[in-house]
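Hi support team,

I've been running sequence recovery on a batch of backbones for a student project. Most finish fine, but this one hangs at about 90% for roughly twenty minutes before it completes. I'm not sure whether the input is malformed or the queue is just slow. I've pasted the structure tokens below so you can try to reproduce it. Let me know if you need the job ID as well.

Thanks,
M.K.
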């Protein structure tokens, strides 16, 4: 058996090699591309039940730091060889937050327990915290202790907290230690479901341990361990930049660089307290200026039912007022009446305009709570409140970047006194805060702009056109065109806003129109789409934004007058709040219907499949493909079949209806739309969640990405390309292409713009930036069309580097299509591509109409524009030069 030191040396060597490899990779050039790592997870979970053969080799990443340990009778046991024996689980390093749980039995009256934040000193000793318990055979009470052990030596200075417990030798007990904020640990000991110990303890400020490993402790043997579980955040532990436990004499001078900006504050009973005085009282820690990223942990309690909390990004105006954010909490004798608010306070004045977010939480007056505020990126604020180990608030909120406070100081807030704080800690980035760049967005042209590019030569000409109907134009909403063989279908909303499906034979100009029993309101989400099954029956769905399913199909092929409403496909309970209907084709040709059920920030994606023989739908997947678990939803670019035979799907997660909460560009693939996997072939359990999906680019909320602009394409070699936009390090909006390579996702910046499109708001937004899918040109160069501020441009990209070769004006459709005919102000010309095909490489159909721009799905005040023409155009293009 290896000695503890030699085993741990191996662990250290592996860690040093990992760090060295990371340093080498960080020194590589990032001007053209960077390679994203494999899909991150938000929490690591590990379990060991010791269900293996007896032996002296414990295995499974356990390292015997001190003393001898072995597996006996499906349990972990120490030998009586030395005092303060420790075995550590080195396979998982504790992050910023963690929970450790173990089933322990003292077989004699000895001290045994859990160790955590263990650091090896390399000389046969260790530093760690331990929650340990002594039991006795007689009915008298046992005892527990929380110790801070230094160099494996226990003495009077080690003790942090202690107490008695009704425990006996030979009984199994569950130990649990958790930490959700620096310096506060929650200690639990259970007998079955009965809590014998439930205590929150602040660890001493001066010599705090963080990170390290978890494991098992035995004073001198006689312990049996049945199971160990560890859960840890992937956010690494960091030493607090600054901390204060207020462990000093009572005084009105708080000291330690605290500045009373407003109201009376003092040290009393080793706590910071706010006295009665002016409203919106603030004290700031002016010794630490907040950087680009930070977190603030405080342990506080309200002694009366008042608003109190943490203040940060504090700016003093020099006139007795301050600007700052505050997470404040109001407690009550009845905890069910507790409340929280996130405010942006200007000049120490609270009004309705101050409230960013608010809600209820269980919070009792007189109880200590651990409150944590952190900002991982500009404009994103994570809020957490814990009552011991019970999380009573966990929210992420976004702040408009054009109104953002940055830098400044952190401190405490009290509406009108009655606050006690016994601990506060700040973790602060060394990178100073600087307000991110602001608009307007200026699309600086790429090099070579203005030069011709032969591959884009040749204009399309109009072969013919056909008037389908006169339609509503008071707001934009998607209509659809489907051409197959000799048949052509159009689904739209007529001048009365009624959904209509029209059909014609291509050699005729007579449309058969079939009105359907549904009318569109003002919501631009409510597009209508359609598809044909293998029997030629038409399926139509649309006019849905969080409403019950609206779906029709014909009973006679080619006859739209036989369209019949079908109230449900599979299950009414999962078809009661439908949005984003999409018809797909499975690899065997069968029709698939994908939709979201639920709302923005809380929805799941279902996939159904159609049987033409029975004319019935059933679930393609037994559960949703994506599930936001009630916290968010996935906005998906519908699965796209690639030249490799895989369906590729990308999506962003979104926490609320606010588009600024879009985040985390993610990916999965499948050969049959049923079995899904990551890009390296690792199977994915369904439903895919926020934690399990493969991440292409871990863009945070308020990071400049938006749903609807994350598109899958393929280059000439069949490699997957994903085009999207986000903010760069300076806060400027840029377009990127992620390319899947053998080394993972390669993130390629395409633009070099200045300024920012501030993505913010609810409903259908006017997009400041949009783009097409990447297309392969005859010379194998790549084409990417984009629109900024209504101006249409095109990049020609080098297929190897993805660097723009040239930027040109996007080839335009004939002016008859692009020119607005209506005289009503702000009208726009719009057109849609064919869901089907003309059957010719040189000809295509498009559907043209006009409408007012989006009004974020809100009704407009009259007058409204007159009905406009809905027309189908047939366009022809000459074969491009090669």
């Amino acid at each position: 058996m290896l000695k503890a030191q030699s085993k741990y040396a191996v662990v250290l060597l592996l860690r040093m090699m990992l760090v060295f490899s990371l340093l080498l990779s960080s020194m590589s050039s990032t001007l053209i591309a960077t390679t994203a790592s494999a899909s991150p997870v938000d929490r690591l979970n590990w379990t060991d039940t010791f269900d293996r053969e007896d032996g002296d080799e414990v295995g499974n990443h356990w390292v015997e730091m001190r003393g001898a340990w072995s597996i006996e009778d499906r349990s972990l046991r120490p030998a009586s060889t030395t005092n303060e024996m420790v075995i550590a689980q080195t396979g998982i390093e504790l992050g910023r937050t963690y929970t450790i749980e173990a089933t322990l039995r003292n077989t004699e009256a000895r001290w045994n327990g859990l160790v955590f934040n263990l650091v090896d000193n390399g000389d046969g000793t260790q530093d760690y915290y331990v929650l340990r318990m002594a039991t006795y055979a007689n009915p008298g009470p046992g005892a527990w202790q929380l110790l801070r052990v230094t160099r494996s030596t226990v003495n009077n200075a080690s003790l942090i907290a202690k107490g008695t417990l009704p425990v006996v030798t030979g009984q199994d007990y569950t130990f649990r230690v958790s930490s959700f904020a620096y310096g506060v640990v929650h200690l639990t000991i259970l007998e079955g479901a009965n809590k014998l110990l439930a205590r929150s303890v602040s660890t001493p400020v001066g010599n705090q341990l963080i990170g390290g490993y978890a494991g098992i402790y035995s004073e001198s043997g006689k312990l049996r361990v049945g199971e160990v579980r560890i859960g840890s955040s992937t956010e690494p532990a960091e030493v607090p930049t600054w901390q204060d436990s207020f462990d000093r004499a009572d005084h009105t001078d708080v000291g330690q660089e605290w500045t009373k900006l407003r109201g009376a504050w003092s040290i009393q009973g080793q706590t910071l307290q706010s006295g009665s005085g002016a409203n919106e009282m603030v004290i700031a820690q002016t010794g630490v200026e907040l950087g680009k990223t930070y977190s603030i942990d405080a342990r506080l309690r309200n002694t009366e039912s008042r608003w109190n909390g943490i203040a940060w990004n504090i700016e003093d105006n020099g006139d007795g007022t301050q600007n700052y954010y505050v997470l404040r909490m109001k407690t009550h004798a009845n905890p069910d009446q507790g409340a929280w608010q996130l405010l942006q306070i200007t000049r120490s004045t609270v009004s309705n305009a101050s409230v960013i977010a608010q809600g209820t939480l269980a919070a009792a007056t007189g109880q200590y709570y651990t409150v944590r505020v952190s900002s991982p990126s500009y404009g994103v604020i994570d809020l957490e409140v814990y009552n011991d180990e019970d999380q009573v608030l966990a929210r992420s909120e976004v702040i408009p970047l054009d109104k953002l406070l940055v830098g400044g100081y952190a401190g405490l807030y009290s509406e009108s006194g009655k606050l006690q704080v016994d601990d506060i800690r700040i973790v602060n980035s060394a990178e100073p805060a600087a307000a991110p760049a602001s608009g307007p967005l200026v699309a600086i042209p790429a090099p070579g702009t203005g030069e011709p590019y032969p591959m884009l030569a040749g204009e399309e000409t109009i072969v013919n056109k056909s008037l389908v109907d006169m339609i509503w134009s008071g707001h934009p909403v998607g209509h659809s065109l489907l051409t197959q063989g000799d048949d052509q279908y159009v689904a739209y909303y007529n001048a009365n806003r009624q959904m209509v499906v029209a059909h014609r034979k291509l050699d005729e100009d007579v449309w058969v129109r079939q009105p359907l029993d549904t009318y569109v309101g003002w919501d631009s989400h409510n597009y209508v789409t359609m598809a044909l099954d293998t029997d030629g029956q038409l399926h139509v769905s649309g006019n849905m934004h969080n409403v019950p399913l609206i779906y029709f199909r014909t009973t006679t092929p080619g006859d739209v007058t036989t369209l019949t409403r079908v109230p449900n496909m599979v299950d009414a309970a999962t078809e009661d709040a439908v949005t984003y209907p999409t018809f797909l084709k499975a690899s065997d040709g069968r029709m698939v219907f994908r939709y979201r059920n639920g709302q923005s920030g809380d929805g799941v994606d279902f996939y159904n499949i159609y049987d033409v023989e029975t004319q019935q739908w059933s679930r393609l997947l037994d559960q949703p493909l994506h599930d936001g678990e009630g916290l968010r939803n996935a906005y998906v670019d519908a699965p796209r079949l690639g030249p490799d035979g895989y369906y590729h799907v990308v999506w962003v997660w979104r926490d609320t209806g606010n588009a600024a909460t879009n985040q985390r560009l993610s990916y999965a693939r499948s050969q049959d739309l049923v079995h899904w996997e990551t890009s390296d072939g690792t199977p994915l359990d369904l439903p895919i969640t926020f934690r399990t999906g493969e991440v292409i680019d871990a863009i945070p909320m308020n990071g400049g990405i938006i749903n609807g602009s994350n598109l899958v394409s393929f280059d000439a070699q069949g490699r997957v390309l994903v085009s999207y936009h986000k903010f760069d390090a300076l806060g400027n909006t840029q377009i990127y292409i992620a390319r899947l390579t053998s080394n993972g996702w390669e993130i390629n910046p395409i633009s070099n713009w200045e300024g920012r499109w501030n993505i913010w708001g609810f409903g259908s937004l006017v997009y400041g930036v949009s783009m097409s899918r990447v297309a392969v040109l005859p010379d194998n160069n790549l084409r990417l069309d984009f629109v900024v501020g209504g101006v249409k441009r095109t990049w020609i990209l080098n297929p190897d580097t993805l660097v723009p070769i040239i930027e040109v004006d996007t080839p335009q459709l004939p002016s008859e299509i692009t020119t607005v005919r209506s005289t009503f102000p702000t009208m726009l010309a719009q057109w849609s591509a064919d869901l089907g095909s003309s059957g010719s490489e040189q000809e295509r159909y498009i559907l043209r109409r006009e409408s007012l721009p989006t009004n974020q799905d809100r009704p407009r005040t009259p007058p409204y524009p007159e009905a406009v023409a809905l027309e189908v155009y047939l366009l022809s293009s000459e074969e491009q030069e090669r």
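--
Follow-up from support: It reproduced on our side and the slowdown came from queue contention, not your input. The CA atoms of residues 528 and 712 lie 22 Å apart. No action needed from you.
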